Records
---
Amino acid sequence: MGYKFATKAIHAGQHADPTTGAVMTPIFQTSTYQQAAPGDHKGYEYSRGTNPTRKALEDCVAALENGSHGLAFSSGMAATETVLKLLKPGDEVITGDDLYGGSYRIFTKVFAHYGIKFHFVDTSEPDHIAAKINDNTRLIWIETPTNPTLKLADIEAIGRVARAANVLFAVDNTFASPYLQNPLDLGADIVMHSVTKYIGGHSDVVMGALVVNDRELYDQLFFYYNACGGTPGPQDSFLVLRGIKTLHLRMKAHCENGRKVAEYLKKHPRIDRIYWPGFEDHPGHAVAKKQMRDFGGMVSIVLKDASLEDTFKVASSFKVFTLAESLGGVESLINHPATMTHGSIPKDVREKVGVVDNLIRISVGVEDIDDLLADLAQALG
Ligand SMILES: Cc1ncc(COP(=O)(O)O)c(C=O)c1O
């Protein structure tokens, strides 16, 4: 569809139901589909492989990422796992040293056991990636901005490194959402999303997605998708289709509130360090300006001279923000990465990249900004 983002968010992959005229895509709560004769069906055989509600969602997410094919999964980790299944023992992966804890865990505690080697580098320097490439390198996997320290990686520059070495290049686009950044346009082969976050947007569904622009790669991924079965149900697909219709409106509000929260916190005497790519002194600011349409609603802070106990006390004293795992929903969330989302990363490994005990990650929601700032003031006070 040649339409702009907001139109695609509302219409892509969807059309009125031909039997009833229903405007909203129905929840096709069926596991199987009638066949007139063996193999003679309407494109749907069994819902592990395809389901019409899920297909509408997959086409919508693919359109938002300017890709040709999308796949929806029962979680972001199931999507990540499916990409890793393209690999064989002896293959090597180059990835970031500052990643979502669950990605670090699946790399080091699951796929490393199948003979796949992972190299963790600072992906804000494309040269660090190039330096690790060898004949066994099969995949480059990055997050940008990273979770939780919001480091930027230059997708176009890494795409050139990947193409020169004929290596698959995947981008976890969860933190940006397709509204802010489209990695396929910048040279990535695969975009991955934890749909649970901004795309779903209402903290009521766990889901993942992959989008590609290549039929052959899609077929390979679909093989593992259907063979292994990490597929979401039609109810969840419907909820996300509904959530996606306001993605552009929500993202605008997240970015606006994110900026105000970051500007407020930057001047706060209890803050030692703040990570938000919209600041000109953020090391990734130029890359963020080049490849993102705005700076997002994620802000991380390091509290000044705060012990773990002091940090817990601050994290537990919010009234509007909720202390909880996850991000990207309409409600503002506070997270303590060291013990929550990144608890599966050993202390020495996480501290090297700044995931210290006094780091707090904030997912700025779309509530009234005055209430958010007042809550920050009282919790930090
Ligand atoms: C950047 C990032 N990637 C992947 C995931 C995993 O997604 P899910 O929780 O939907 O399995 C998360 C979850 O927090 C995440 O933040």
---
Amino acid sequence: MHEHHHDPIDGDIVAPPPKIPVPEHVAEAIRTLIRWTGDDPDREGLLDTPQRVARAWKEYCAGYGEDPAHHLSRVFEEVGGYDEIVLLKDIPFQSHCEHHMAPITGKASIAYLPRNHVVGISKLARVLHAFARRLQVQERLTAEVADCIWNHLHPVGVAVVIEAQHGCMTGRGVRTPGVGMVTSRMMGVFREDERSRAEVLKLMGY
Ligand SMILES: [Zn+2]
């Protein structure tokens, strides 16, 4: 939450930079959460848990410190006349849902049809992880990955299909383990041309 300050000199409302909490405050918050569950944060097995959880969340959300588009900045122009689909299939990933901060685990297939340059294939996975390591909803994750490739690689088409399980569904609420959610985003030729879309989906195994 950002506080707003009234500047007495020119009267402008300015927002200060967001306050990053210090690690001790994060640990205290996790102790509170442990108490909230009904357990005792001072029992032996839980003593180091708050610090561990704080470190773990820095990793789960490392994507905030990354510019996903940066991974697409190094392109190769010489593709030897290759004008077919480039696909990275079934990339495993983990994210966390922004509604419950529960894990989202799944796999993504990312494809594009190059116009005149390509990127190193591992870069597609890096773009995915840079967006996944944030608090997310699956629909937005799917769209962000596709948009990033579309806007920075300027391909003829982009197709992203994500299949994932949500901890907030399997572990609480309706408790339906094994149910996966599928989201997709098709752009360019994969959106406009039914045959191209069918081709990419078949390559992805759908
Ligand atoms: Zn959720």
